[in-house]
Design a protein that fits this description.
single chain, 278 residues, alpha+beta, eleven-stranded mixed sheet, 13 strands, 29% helix
């Protein structure tokens, strides 16, 4: 049975209703230039392609995923059609056969499905936003010498940094499964390795994942430099937009991406059965 990694950003919303936040179509304004940003469908397609499940099964009205221990994002069932109570019961049986707790990923506009799951004893965890911006909004910045690098395969020091943040072999296997253009990010601060990350391209969207900064290197600019390096790599591979998913509870990360002019363009959250391990 899979045990979800504990996360300080997980919390339970006390009522049964859909989350109150929504993401309106976003337009980014950078130095007087307005650029239409990806819509939620495009962002969720990029999220799935750049952080793929080990296997997935179409079982309408759900898409079921087997994450092979790679976390909630690659293991949660998502909605692809109208849902009734019997459909949820059938999905629960199918997920039990995969050996992990019933887990559903819901976009911010799926209130009726939220209510059905709440009635069956599912609690909400990890409300998440997807932020995006034009690639040029980040690539235009100069990158200090030796501040950040892009490379593939990841170095051993990068694997150590990820492991310190709870990103182990199962999540690195997710990175290995990506078939499109991809690279790893190495950030440095005070002449030492400070952070590791991953970025992959789907269409014209470059999605950043697994951005981890060492505790003793935080608030020193490493994450910002890594995002700039990611944008320069993405632009060289034809990307028009940068995107990243971050839990709403991660105030430090949201503050950084707000400062980088990356507005919220989509939202999602999970529902997991009361009493199930996360």
């Amino acid at each position: 049975m899979t045990r979800w990694r504990n996360c300080a950003s997980c919390f339970q919303k006390p009522d049964r209703h859909a989350p109150p936040w929504t993401a309106a179509p976003a337009r980014a304004i950078t130095h007087g230039v307005t650029d239409d940003l990806p819509n939620p469908d495009q962002l969720f397609a990029a999220l799935a392609a750049t952080w793929p499940a080990a296997a997935q099964t179409h079982a309408p009205p759900f898409l079921l995923r087997d994450g092979a221990g790679g976390g909630k994002r690659v293991s949660a069932a998502s909605v692809i059609g109208p849902v009734g109570p019997d459909d949820i019961a059938n999905a629960e049986i199918a997920m039990a056969r995969l050996g992990h707790p019933p887990l559903f990923s819901l976009r911010g506009n799926l209130g009726p499905v939220d209510a059905l799951l709440a009635d069956r004893g599912y609690r909400m965890v990890d409300p998440t936003v997807i932020r995006a911006c034009p690639v040029g909004a980040l690539s235009r910045f100069d990158l200090p010498r030796l501040a950040a690098f892009t490379l593939w395969e990841p170095l051993e020091i990068m694997r150590e940094i990820w492991a310190e943040g709870g990103i182990g072999p199962e999540r690195m296997a997710v990175m290995a499964r990506v078939t499109g253009p991809k690279t790893a990010l190495l950030g440095r601060s005070q002449a030492r390795a400070a952070g590791a990350g991953f970025v992959a391209l789907h269409g014209d969207i470059a999605m950043v994942h697994a951005l981890e900064i060492r505790a003793n290197a935080r608030r020193q600019g490493a994450a910002r430099h890594m995002m700039i390096a990611a944008a320069k790599w993405a632009q060289s591979h034809g990307a028009r937009h940068m995107a990243i998913a971050v839990t709403q509870a991660n105030g430090a990360a949201n503050g950084l991406y707000t400062s980088l002019n990356m507005p919220v363009c989509a939202t999602y959250h999970y529902r997991i059965k009361d009493g199930a391990d996360e």
